[in-house]
Amino acid sequence: MDNEVQIENIPKKKWYKRGWGISVIILGSLLLVLLVYFFAHFFYYYNGIKNGKIPLPGANNIKTGIENSTTVKIDDTAKLFHEGEPGTEDKAPFSIVGFFDFRCPLCIGVSSTVRELQQTYKGKIQFVFRNFPVVSLHPDAMLLAQAGECANLQNKFWPMYDKIFLNKSKDKISSEDLSSYAEQIGIDANKFSECLSSDKTKSLILEDTSDAEDLGVRGTPTWFIGNQKVEGPLSGNDFKKIIDKLLSEAEKK
User: Fold this and answer.
1) d(CA 220, CA 103)
2) Residues 233 and 140 in one domain
3) Which residues contact 106 (CB under 8 A, 6 or more apart)?
4) 144 and 172, same domain (yes or no)
5) pTM
6) What's 10's DSSP letter?
7) Residue pair 74/81 in contact by the 8 Å Cβ criterion
8) Do both 108 and 172 map to the same domain?
9) By the 8 A CB rule, do 21 and 15 touch?
10) Kindly report the CA angle at 16 between 13 and 17, in degrees rounded to 5?
């Protein structure tokens, strides 16, 4: 009688125990680590730029401060500002035009200086505020710009300016917050809310940004003082030197 040969069925290895499976796991793990590393650095730099702790790429090439100001020829002075812009109500003989983003850390830093100098040089210098919201970094910057323009329609731009900058520590300022500020500064809250929820002022803001780009504005704050363009924040002393020089030269004429 022939001996029967029994063939034992060897169980197949699971895929993750095979050579190719192990390679897939190792490569997948490396890819996951790289993705985590990439996104961690992305959010670190994004938040750093957003909060002003890390300069934008190429920002080191942007000269800041009055000692590094550049003299520019402005062919179309109408692009600097128009009647009705916040600040033009002062009717002063000299103008300092500033392009601002309400959420820009550098603008926040200089906001109180502007208000102090308005009082010091009242009737001599007008600080004209224009919008340059960088929504790619500050998502609510457009809404805040609209709030300023809506308040300006009721001749209350500067009180709203103060309210927005006083609440700079809030991660996000909502429409409800802005309506509350409107009530606090004594303007018609219903008209303000209607203005804010419509596109009524967006065309004014887009006109500001268009003029800014034509004037070579690359960031905020950017100032136009006479025929000088100054990029970045200025100290109170810097402003005083500029203003006193303007007033002194005017007296000699």
Assistant:
1) 10
2) yes
3) 52, 220, 221, 232, 233
4) yes
5) 0.71
6) P
7) no
8) yes
9) yes
10) 45
